[in-house]
Write a structure and sequence with these properties.
This protein is an alpha/beta fold. It folds into 3 domains: 29-227, Rossmann fold; 238-385, 3-Layer(aba) Sandwich (Rossmann fold); 402-436, no CATH class. Helices cover 46% and strands 16% of the residues. The protein is built from 17 helices and 13 strands. It has a 6-stranded parallel sheet with strand order 1-10-9-8-11-12, sandwiched between helices. The relative contact order is 0.15.
Length: 438
């Protein structure tokens, strides 16, 4: 077993600190030529290219007739799942729906900026959206719920899903049931670069959409980078990452358990336990091998790689220094296990989500607490937010002025138009004054 890192933060060089803060940034530049090829072929050949790539990468016997999930596929998916799993999907959806309904803004608002001058906004859903639900190392009905629920709450007129096929050419059963629970029946069984290209340009079967939302592999990221500007590619999302922030009051067993959560996603994930209490840090470090040994081998390998590379235990000089580390890192998931978590919360500014206390571990938010678990990674939590209804809404500014309001503002407008040397702007004002007798 690789050794689990124990990092004394103040003893690291600047270069070593930078490496930890950068984590496993995915370099997708080597994939861009392939992405360009796939995009070009899908744009030119439509379904034929999509099917050819599906056969090459996913399902050797894939056919064009399998591109869209049929009603019989939804029925078979529900029949194949246990009642317990279906109930869990439905319960999670209920909480996620309630949370996102609270996010919905007023459909329109106005304010009087001056007498006779009204300015406001009209909020509308995007015209169409595609949800990318990955399969990769497993099946992710939770991702379906996290994407489909806010899209439907936002009122997007057309919501479609793309998700990679199994080797048999089918969509994951639990993901189909989750889509159905959310009210979506338009699911396309396609993934990877070819799915993003198809959504950007449209094929004979797969519709062109205004926006694509959802996490994917480095191949998906490469296609999104090239298609940025052709289609809105949504939130940047990379390898999973987490920080468990604790003080001397924290339970070391729970700290160690929670550190493993995001580490098991894959070898390029990052998972850090951060505390100023050296005794706690040593206890957590000592507990980790025992918990890791209980995991199945393939997940154990992921965790061992992560905790010896971009993860581990970080010992700082003070709680304030730990908090500064968190804000500099800007993690996707942050657990706060301090004596006064709501007090600590006031100093935390950069995190995709912030979970408070021993009873709110990361898995609860990943699945069913109601918060959206599609979060910014790679430090993007400094400027991006989790997926929400706002990913599926847009705002239009709305203005209105009465005659008196216009009369009081026209001089200001004409003066600024003159200064910026826009004669047509100024003429539209001054000649209007004469026409309207102002």
């Amino acid at each position: 077993m690789p050794s689990i890192q124990f990092i004394t933060w103040n003893k690291l060089s600047t270069a070593e600190k930078t490496r930890i803060l950068r984590r496993a940034e995915t370099d997708i530049s080597n994939l861009l030529p392939l992405a360009q090829e796939v995009i070009g072929k899908v744009r030119a050949r439509g379904n034929k290219a999509v099917v050819a790539y599906a056969r090459k990468f996913d399902a050797p016997d894939f056919r064009a007739s399998m591109l869209r999930a049929k009603a019989t596929d939804f029925k078979a998916a529900r029949k194949s799942l246990s009642a317990k799993v279906i109930a869990a999907i439905e319960a999670a959806h209920e909480n996620i729906r309630r949370f996102h309904e609270e996010q919905m803004p007023e459909p329109m608002w106005f304010t009087q900026v001056q007498p006779g001058m009204m300015a406001g906004e009209k909020v509308s859903p995007v015209t169409s959206a595609a949800l990318y639900v990955p399969r990769g190392k497993g099946a992710f009905p939770s991702v379906m719920l996290m994407l489909a629920t806010p899209a439907k709450v936002a009122g997007v007129p057309r919501v479609v899903v793309v998700t990679p096929p199994t080797p048999e050419g089918k969509a994951d059963a639990a993901s189909l049931v989750a889509a159905e629970v959310c009210g979506i029946d338009e699911v396309y069984v396609v993934g990877g670069m070819q799915a993003i290209a198809a959504l950007a340009y449209g094929t004979e079967t797969i519709p062109k959409v205004a926006k694509i939302v959802g996490p994917g592999s480095s191949y998906v990221s490469a296609a999104k980078r090239l298609l940025y500007g052709t289609v809105d590619v949504g939130l940047p999302a990379g390898p999973s990452e987490s920080i468990i922030l604790a003080d001397e009051s924290a339970n070391p067993q729970l700290c160690a358990l929670d550190l493993l959560v995001e580490a098991e996603h894959g070898p390029d994930s990052a998972a850090l336990f951060v505390t100023h209490d050296e005794a706690l840090a040593r206890k957590v470090h000592g507990l980790l091998p025992g918990f890791i040994a209980e995991l199945p081998e393939w997940r154990r390998n992921f965790v061992e790689t992560v905790l010896s590379n971009y993860g581990g235990v970080v010992h700082t000089g003070s709680l304030e220094e730990s908090i500064q580390f968190v804000n500099d890192y800007a993690p996707e998931h942050l657990e706060v296990l301090t004596a006064e978590p709501f007090v600590t919360l006031q100093s935390l500014h950069n995190a995709g989500e912030i979970l408070l206390g021993h009873y709110t571990p990361i898995p609860t938010a990943n699945y069913a607490l109601g918060l959206n678990a599609i979060l910014p990674t790679g430090g993007f939590a400094r400027s991006f937010s989790s997926v929400s209804v706002w990913d599926f809404l847009k705002r239009s500014g709305v203005g209105y002025m009465s005659r008196d309001g216009y009369a009081s503002l026209q001089g200001t407008v004409a003066t600024l138009a003159d200064y910026e040397d826009f004669p047509a702007h100024a003429m539209a004002i001054r000649k209007r004054n004469k026409i309207l007798g102002i």
